[in-house]
Amino acid sequence: MKYYTAYPRDNQIIGLAPMDGVTDYPARQIQAKIAKPALMYTEFINVEGLTKKPQAQENRLKFDQEQQPLIVQLWGNNPEYFYQAAKIVAPLGFNGIDINAGCPNPRVLKRGAGGSLIGKNDLIQEIVNGCKNAIKETKGNLPLSIKTRIIGEKEENCRWAEALADLDIDLVCLHGRDLEQRLSGPVDWERVNEGAQIIKGSGKLVLGNGGIKNRTQALEKCKQYNLDGVLIGQAAIGNPWVFSQNDTPTKKELFKTIADHARKVEEFYGPRGFKSFYKHAVCYCRNFSGAKELRIKLLQTKNWPQVENLLNSVALT
């Protein structure tokens, strides 16, 4: 199913943005159970690593039906590796392939990937061609998309949007902060709108991204800037309720979800991988009495039973 192009044009796509080390298999399980978004993305998957050592990327490629529609996001800067990686992921059952052309992480930028691809039109074209060829060769009909960023200067932003509009892809997601801002600071929705209208003129879908705190705000941005949807990122960490109309869980619901998340992390990664739960634990513990104390104690736990015992003891006080 070509999810992007089949999605009703009169509905907004409110989805979970790709976040490395965050939107992994356990987190997507929790998200799908609590408040399922219109679509979700995997963590970032490096095309060179996937091509050379595909077995090392198995955890990042695992998903189940409940997590769909699910888009696999690839990052790198070598068109041949993108081609090889797309050949690997295309037959696996994902609902689309996304090219990361916006990550602001300095380590990614140093490798000429992520946000370093912004404005490199010829290279982006080669990468898109490689992915399209891979999809065609695997007899698939997967949509191809790019997640990228605005450029702060209007003329350059418009040129970048025009280059994206010319690509043979189905969807573009525009983050409203430039590379220098990384993940903080004001989101320039006017620049997003500026680029979006150019890209939409080519018949592609356009999503916005950046600083969205809840579903209501996401829908407002869609309407205000004529967007086909919005991706929610940081606000979803430790708050899977962000995609529902009622985004304030009871303390009982919160504690149950924390324990469930800890259990799923341990089951998926084993005891040695339990530390990946901590980044979520920190974000679950906010905006309620005793949150700071619970956060500190959760970061001292070593496994799921310890988390459950801690939450039970706190609930009884």
From TrEMBL:
Q: One Pfam match, by short name?
A: Dus
Binding-site list for FMN: Q73, K147, H175, N209, G210, G211
The protein's UniProt keywords, in alphabetical order, are: Flavoprotein, FMN, NADP, Nucleotide-binding, Oxidoreductase, RNA-binding, tRNA processing, tRNA-binding
Does the keyword field hold tRNA processing?
Answer: yes
Question: What does the record give as the reaction this protein catalyses?
Answer: a 5,6-dihydrouridine in tRNA + NADP(+) = a uridine in tRNA + NADPH + H(+); a 5,6-dihydrouridine in tRNA + NAD(+) = a uridine in tRNA + NADH + H(+)
GO molecular function annotation: flavin adenine dinucleotide binding; tRNA binding; tRNA dihydrouridine synthase activity
User: In this protein, which residues make up the domain named DUS-like FMN-binding?
Assistant: 16-303
Q: Which cofactor does it need?
A: FMN
Task: State the SUPFAM superfamilies in the record.
Answer: FMN-linked oxidoreductases
- EC supergroup of this enzyme: oxidoreductase
Q: Where is the active site?
A: C103 (proton donor)
Entry's EC annotation: 1.3.1.-
Task: Family membership, please give it.
Answer: Belongs to the dus family.
What is the purpose of this protein? Answer: Catalyzes the synthesis of 5,6-dihydrouridine (D), a modified base found in the D-loop of most tRNAs, via the reduction of the C5-C6 double bond in target uridines.
What name is this protein filed under?
Answer: tRNA-dihydrouridine synthase
